[in-house]
Amino acid sequence: MRDHDAQPVGGLARRLASILAARGQDPTAEPTYEPEPLPALQMGEARIPARYQGAVADHPAVAAWVREVAEAGRPGPQGAPGLAEGRSLLIVGTTGTGKTHQAYGAIRSLLIAGVRLRWKAITAADLYAELRPRPGHDGERELMDLARCPLLIIDDLGAAKNSEWTEEITMRLINRRYNAMLPTLITTNLGMADLRTHIGDRVASRLTEMTDRVILDGPDRRRALAAERFRASVAN
């Protein structure tokens, strides 16, 4: 190991300052510290689809729902609130108005707020596909797991083909969550009248009572973004 001659502290400080200055760094600047990423947010974002990992719940009604749910949480380990019973949210809008974006943004907002959160997300079409009876699959157990999940996203309710079986499955799932007062985030392209026709009066009645409704309007954002990319490519 090579020994270096001792230097006065002042000389060493001046030498270090000159090295930092040569590298374009201000030795007199206050150090900045990046906050450590939230572990819950990291784990939660790992389960969020890549397209929605930066989603933000910027609609006032969705943000208000997030605050209400977060404030109602019961304290858990290290004082972090856990998800409690509460109101559900029905996000209604035509295709491409950002319903799914707002739903995943709500999840991210709850995670950022430090809420201990166990959640699941599934489209209505995938819900019926997963629960359809088939050999070696316990659909009943999976239905109960969805029914008991502290927070559930059901995306595109009313988009799947309807039948007596799908209406029964929807009724059983919604009714259990309605009775337990578990928060449920539901998105749909259908107005309440069309939704009632598609999923039945019993489910629609429960949704009317258990949810706050948010209506998103405007153009199809996906088509608008595609048009913008096309214009940019032509300009280049």
UniProtKB/TrEMBL annotation:
It comes from the Bacteria. Residues 85-221 form the AAA+ ATPase domain. GO terms for biological process: DNA replication. GO terms for molecular function: ATP binding. The keyword Cell cycle does not apply. InterPro entries: AAA+_ATPase, IstB_ATP-bd, P-loop_NTPase. Keywords: ATP-binding, Nucleotide-binding. SMART domains: AAA (SM00382). This is ATP-binding protein. It comes from Streptomyces tabacisoli.
